[in-house]
Design brief:
Length: 192
């Protein structure tokens, strides 16, 4: 069942890249918590989703022979991501540190960000298509927010001090208080 779905995603992305970006916008936030080797060996589900969309983009550019266009911001982000990979690699290489598979993934992580950025940067969308994509992206975070609100503990968030994390010493009317169920809210009372 997964292979036909993957083939359909690649074909739809090759025909209409907006569908692939919409799949990334919805799928990545919903599958980020799934770790490696949970569903697919070696990869996270969001990494597989990115590879499928990238394959669809490659087919799209081969079929339609569109040229890539770049702006100054694209080059700046590409340089930043490349530097974020090159500097840790040089530190590990020059320090003669043995690099295992997980370390390589951590070092090459910014390139994954770069690929996602370039996929979205190469879209040629109208204003309504862009608005729909942004609305879809924002709507995909609602289930995550609902899940977080049902699993949230009653402990206040920890604050970082000079010696490390510490809990708040006394109740205060800071901004975190309104989002944590520490006290029973009276109807008609003003909280903020």
């Amino acid at each position: 069942m997964a292979l036909p779905a993957a083939a359909v995603l690649v074909a739809l992305t090759a025909r209409r890249p907006l569908i692939g970006c919409a799949a990334l916008a919805v799928g990545v936030p919903l599958t980020t918590a799934l770790g490696r080797d949970t569903v697919i060996p070696v990869l996270r589900p969001n990494e597989v989703l990115l590879l499928l969309v990238l394959a669809g983009f490659a087919l799209h550019h081969l079929w339609y022979r569109r040229t890539f266009y770049y702006l100054g911001i694209d080059l700046a982000i590409a340089g930043f991501a490349t530097g974020c990979v090159l500097i840790p690699w040089l530190v590990l290489f020059l320090g003669h540190t043995w690099i295992d598979f997980d370390t390589w993934r951590a070092v090459l992580g910014p390139l994954q960000f770069l690929v996602v950025y370039l996929c979205f940067a190469q879209l040629r969308l109208s204003d309504t298509e862009l608005q729909r994509l942004l609305n879809l992206t924002l709507a995909s975070f609602r289930p995550i927010r609902r899940h977080r609100s049902t699993t949230r503990s009653t402990d206040p968030p920890r604050r970082w001090g000079r010696t490390g994390p510490s809990a708040p010493s006394a109740p205060s009317t800071s901004s975190w208080r309104s989002s944590w169920p520490l006290e029973k809210i009276q109807p008609g009372a003003r909280h903020g």
